[in-house]
Amino acid sequence: MHNSIFHIVAFAVLLVTLASGATSPDKQLMNKLVDRYQANARSRLPKTGPCRADNVKVRKEWGDLSNKTRLDYIRAVKCLASLPSKIGSYKALGARSRYDDFEAAHIIHTPTIHATGLFFAWHRHIAYLYEKALREECGYSGYLPYWDWARWADVPLNTNPLWDGSATSMSGNGKYIPNRNGTVQPGPVSGAPSLYTAPGTGGGYIYEGPFVNWTLHLGPVVNSVVQNGQPVTPNPRSDGLGYNPRRMIRDFNASLVKEGATYSILTDFLLNKTTIQDFHMPFFSGPHLAGHLFISGYDNDLYTSPQDPLFWFHHGQVDRMWSIWQGLDYATREYALDGTLTFGNLPPSRNVTLDDPMSFEFSPDVPVRRAMSTTKEDYCYIYA
Ligand SMILES: *[C@@H]1O[C@H](CO)[C@@H](O)[C@H](O)[C@H]1NC(C)=O
Ligand SMILES: *[C@@H]1O[C@H](CO)[C@@H](O)[C@H](O)[C@H]1NC(C)=O
Ligand SMILES: *[C@@H]1O[C@H](CO)[C@@H](O)[C@H](O)[C@H]1NC(C)=O
Ligand SMILES: *[C@@H]1O[C@H](CO)[C@@H](O)[C@H](O)[C@H]1NC(C)=O
Ligand SMILES: *[C@@H]1O[C@H](CO)[C@@H](O)[C@H](O)[C@H]1NC(C)=O
Ligand SMILES: *[C@@H]1O[C@H](CO)[C@@H](O)[C@H](O)[C@H]1NC(C)=O
Ligand SMILES: [Cu+2]
């Protein structure tokens, strides 16, 4: 009797603890690392100059933004999609909007900015340009929000306010289409492995929330045919830069993040991968790839992934993980580079250097060095 009451009480305590989101040891460790990174980042900011401790911008998780900021962000993304393209039709014939410019630059440079020494730096700079465009061209008053993969890995999909389908979300999953097969993306260069993605829990067009009428213009580049799936019209050009208006498909698959981007995996990257050679490629093909394929393996390829506004949340988190990793030991990690000029070093090429230029097509080239620190030169931000 005594014993069983004790068990019932213990069980109830356990349930309450779980329900209140008690912090797991892995999450506690992550919180500690984030605190250490922030302290390191702030303590070295100068007292004078353009970027100081009293004006450094803080990029936050979507779940920690107010509804007011979320609505302002959603409005600004739609605004970017309503402004005319600047990239020039000789570079991207199918680009119609300022939003398309970012995707076009990504499509054009895909083989040289993935699995190369430019990966982290190029994506940091284009995310900065995107944040700047939202603020300066569309009046957004906040900063780039990110998606903390692990924070939402173990809760039901529809509890993440980023894609719960409500008016304050980035719209939800695609409509579920059963009995499809998966997709196979050939590698972007000869000799690179192809990538299989199993069908997820959507597969059709998104159908709720503010982006239901979001129109894609470019791509696909990789044209997967999916048995019984939503047909996707091929792009009129083989480079995917022709005009191909269509609606947006999502195919969420929570297992990918649950298996590939948990706090346990991420803290291991931050603490145990102490050189950029240990960190870069496993991170690229691990947590980074998992987040992309979570969104969709279908009509969302290596080239065209920025067409879905969720891309910027995912790459915000990629940049955040790199920033935290750098911030845990600036002396050895801040300017560390790994990788050559060619995808997976195919064909073999030389190592990328800090002086190599990166191209953005609609915005001036910048050297890699320029994108290594988030608080120097034009940048002035840290991550919450
Ligand atoms: C934010 O908006 C969502 C619907 O989009 C609503 O469910 C939620 O209650 C709102 N939160 C606050 C704090 O008002
Ligand atoms: C999700 O991804 C996993 C791992 O690739 C795969 O086994 C599974 O079939 C996919 N789909 C669903 C609905 O879980
Ligand atoms: C999407 O477009 C349809 C048809 O024009 C319209 O009725 C609907 O209100 C639009 N939805 C949103 C969220 O803009
Ligand atoms: C999926 O379906 C397409 C079209 O029928 C086919 O070409 C492809 O081989 C199938 N893939 C798998 C893995 O079954
Ligand atoms: C680091 O690696 C060691 C040895 O493999 C492992 O025991 C430890 O859990 C790892 N640390 C983290 C934070 O994952
Ligand atoms: C290129 O970088 C790799 C590690 O990232 C290093 O092992 C190699 O020595 C470098 N090659 C040259 C020529 O510097
Ligand atoms: Cu990319």
From TrEMBL:
Keywords: Metal-binding, Oxidoreductase, Signal. InterPro entries: Di-copper_centre_dom_sf (IPR008922), Tyrosinase/Hemocyanin (IPR050316), Tyrosinase_Cu-bd (IPR002227). It holds the Pfam family Tyrosinase. The keyword Cell inner membrane does not apply. PROSITE patterns: TYROSINASE_2 (PS00498). Residues 308-319 form the Tyrosinase copper-binding domain. One of its GO terms (molecular function) is oxidoreductase activity. Residues 1-21 form the signal peptide. This is Tyrosinase copper-binding domain-containing protein.
